[in-house]
Amino acid sequence: MPRTVLVTGGNRGIGLAIAQRFAKQGDRVAVTHRGSDVPAGLYGVRCDITDPAQVDAAFDQIEAELGPVEVLVANAGITADTLLLRMSEEQFSSVLETNLAGSWRCAKRAAKKMLRARWGRMIFISSVAGLSGNPGQTNYAASKAGLVGLARSITRELGSRNITANVVAPGMIETDMTAELPQARRDQLLGEIPGGRFAQVDEVAAAVGFLASDEAGYITGAVLPVDGGLGMGH
């Protein structure tokens, strides 16, 4: 049966690949964005997830058009990289507010309807940096590590209601951003990855699709790395 799926930040990159995977299997897919174009076949909702009122309004709109959100993929995120001693209060707090607090807001709002239906899937997109750390990313790594605690606490609260909460932790992914890296830096990164290559966005989407499936109904509170062995399962 088709489900209603929400992918935050699902209009580009990894989020878009995830959204399109669900759409191809016949689900009703909504994506949040902050003013960008939304590809055909997806239902776009403008929403800044740092604003609680906008989150509520987005869910109201999706519920009216597509039905209650049954699968939430909390993917939206930002970076503001710099070394610890140079990082400003705003650089730290803005990344935490979007990546962690924004995901919490969406999960809280989605949980209302999931509890009523006694079924739901929440998948949080973290990062290898959240589990292994990364120089210049104390804010980003902290926000992505926080998603693990968030998912596991939700699991303990809502697991008995057939609601799962899991984390996907991608490593280095082939995107426009990584394609622009100097060759020497790419070679250095590739040398650290046992798999010997960067991942494709579709490989991350496949992991998300599995965790949202009925077959993964007994998997919850888990972290699924998609990193070619870089984090060795953390």
TrEMBL record:
Gene Ontology BP terms: fatty acid elongation
Keyword Transcription carried by entry: no
InterPro entries associated with the record: KR_dom, NAD(P)-bd_dom_sf, SDR_fam
SUPFAM superfamilies documented for this protein: NAD(P)-binding Rossmann-fold domains
Keywords: Oxidoreductase
Transmembrane region(s): none
The UniProt record lists the keyword Oxidoreductase: yes
Domain Ketoreductase: 3-176
GO molecular function: oxidoreductase activity, acting on the CH-OH group of donors, NAD or NADP as acceptor
Gene3D superfamilies documented for this protein: NAD(P)-binding Rossmann-like Domain (3.40.50.720)
PANTHER family the UniProt entry points to: BLL7886 PROTEIN, SHORT-CHAIN DEHYDROGENASES/REDUCTASES FAMILY MEMBER
Family under the similarity heading: Belongs to the short-chain dehydrogenases/reductases (SDR) family.
Protein name (database record): Beta-ketoacyl-ACP reductase
Organism: Actinocatenispora comari
Gene: fabG_2
